[in-house]
Known about the structure:
Layout: H1 11-21, H2 26-33, H3 37-44, H4 52-62, H5 66-82, H6 85-99
Amino acid sequence: MEIIDRLPTHPGDVLKEEIEYRGITQKKFAELLGVPYTQMNEILNGKRPVSTDFALMVEAALGIAPEMLINMQNRYNMALARQKPALRSRLFNIRKMCAAL
């Protein structure tokens, strides 16, 4: 299993660029979706994951496919998990034990 040198793009980065392009402030977008500003800001800055509910709200507001946002989030989460030393060690041991079966 290869280690990723660079994390995949967090879906919040894409959303941040999109709302900036459309001239929508984070505060206004949070109001439109009915979510707290702090939650919106954390998502747009990659500090909080995009949930399925949030992705569906974004689709309703901007027409962006929720599956794309969720797939981006899953890739991001997987890359973060693969960087954890304890998990990497555990996975190595699992592979080693299962190879002997």
